Amino acid sequence: MSPKSRLNVTLLLTLSILILLIAVCVSYPQRRASAQDAPNELEAVQPPVVNPMRVEGHAKCIDCHKLEVKAWLASKHATRAFDLLRTSPRSRKYAKHLGIRPSDIAKKSVCVNCHATPMIDEAGRRSVLSGVSCESCHNAAGGEDGWLNRHASYGPRGTRREQESDSHYQARAAACETAGQLRTENLYQLAKRCFACHVVSDEKLVEAEHDHGDRFELVTKMLGEVRHNFSQDTATNAEVATLWTDSLHYAAGRTSTGRKRVVFIVGQLVDLGTSLRSLATGTEENDFTDLMIDRIDEAFGLLAEDLLEEVEDTELPEIEQAVEAVDPVFEKLDDDGFSTDDKQLYLEAALQVGRAAQAFAARDGSKLEEIDDLDLLPEGPFAGVYQP
User: Fold this and answer.
1) Which distant-in-sequence residues (6+ apart) come within 8 Å of 377 by Cβ?
2) Distance in angstroms (rounded) separating the CA atoms of residues 39 and 48
3) Helix/strand/coil (H, E, C) string of 229-247?
4) Which residues contact 206 (CB under 8 A, 6 or more apart)?
5) The pTM is what?
6) pLDDT for res 372
7) How far apart are CA 319 and CA 309, in angstroms?
């Protein structure tokens, strides 16, 4: 081959590589957003929609998470949540109000997004996995680029978790996040998934008297029957995810007490942000908007008064940011009540609260001892371990 021919080939290869790199760079953010199904923070809250094409089902989790699945099978998430759609007279009442045929309630209605797990079966038919499953909370796992097979691959074949290098862990965590996994490390996104269902954000449903039940509080619920933290100790269902407290890839000193402090405050912030975004969907002043204003009032009061005014020696800039963002909304609601003209005001405040929550979720909670004595939960915020 002549020098000129070799030069032409080299230039052609270089050009091809550049075109490929440009295409990857342009398309990567779109693929990432699609994989995570990340909602726009300036949009109103919606029930979680798990990609049914990627749902694998809890049977794929049992080999590595036998005790976690056992705990889930005994929970209301696995049993009562779906049964309510088929047996509760209230379900038929809500369906009628929404224009849903009774035969569709537990099959292909909006209700299954929170009470079950939509999926596509092996024959390619639309189906429903009964119960609020692993993937309802942690996101659909399947597909060639899914997180199912990635999240427990610690290196070359045969590498145990304790042998995984820090660089491999960081790459694995990033790959799983890109694939859409809602890991316990990502407390903010996981909390948002919880509140997306536990705050009924559909105005028509609330107007049909859909029951919220007891006020959803994140620490209490995570210590309750949904608790399934056996990764590092199969004999004990730990208070918080044991991978989070393990110092293998983190700084030492993380404790379950510190984590619960962070979970509690993040829960309040996510509750506030979810209620603000839900309020933005209101069409008029009614029971729905009144309910969301009550939620905003309670969460805002706890953060602004019980936390900021009572905690003296601990810096809480994230809480200050959230309170400052919501204060104009709170004052306007107090003076003028709800108005559809203020939708953007509610959404902008929710955006700032979300940013504050995400920043606070990065804390380890070790320097938040002051909040332990505030008695913010009915029986003290962090008293004892839940015993099922």
Assistant:
1) 217, 219, 220, 264
2) 9
3) CCCCCCCCCCCCCHHHHCC
4) 200, 287, 288, 291
5) 0.85
6) 86
7) 11
Domain membership flag for residue 45: no
Task: State the total domains in the chain.
Answer: 1
Q: Residue 41 in contact with residue 354, Cβ under 8 Å? A: yes
Is 283 within a domain?
A: yes
Q: What single-letter DSSP state applies at residue 150?
A: T
pLDDT at 312: 87
pLDDT, one tens digit per residue, over 115-135 is 999 998 777 888 899 999 999
Band of pLDDT at residue 48, cut at 50, 70 and 90: low
**Mutual orientation of helices 343-360 and 187-198 as an angle, nearest 10°?**
140
Q: Structural domain of residue 380, as residue ranges?
A: 195-388
* DSSP states along 15-56: HHHHHHHHHHHHHHHHHHHHHHTPPPTTSPP------GGG--
Arithmetic mean of pLDDT over the chain: 84
Radius of gyration in angstroms for the set of CA atoms belonging to the chain, rounded to a whole number: 23
Question: Is 4 a residue whose pLDDT tops 60?
Answer: no
